[in-house]
Amino acid sequence: MTSSDDGGYVHDPSAFDGDGTADTNNEAGDSAAESGADWTKNPRNPTTADRDFDWRGWVLVGVIIIAFLVAPLSILLWPPTLNYFVALLILPLFPAALLAITAVWATTRP
């Protein structure tokens, strides 16, 4: 029991060509470019994107050095008279969180 006035998705085989691709107009009359399918017709070449290794990359390299060199050395040099909860849980947590946040920030472009 399917009807066109039920408000939900109803599969319409006549909306597709014989090779399985969608027609240029959907059932609402919008073209494929208007409905957001333009990227499938004209995809952007990744080489045209601005992906230079700039200052964001150097910030990420600095945070990697902190996370992989400074944090383990600080754990190693933590005085044994102090609490090991801080040395084994808190000291690795901050560089790991900083590295994760910096990696997302450095790889996303506005």
UniProtKB/TrEMBL annotation:
Residues 1-51 are annotated as: Disordered. It comes from the Archaea. Keywords: Membrane, Transmembrane, Transmembrane helix. Pfam families: DUF7977. The chain crosses the membrane at residues 58-78, 84-106. InterPro entries: DUF7977. This is Uncharacterized protein. It comes from Natrialba chahannaoensis JCM 10990.
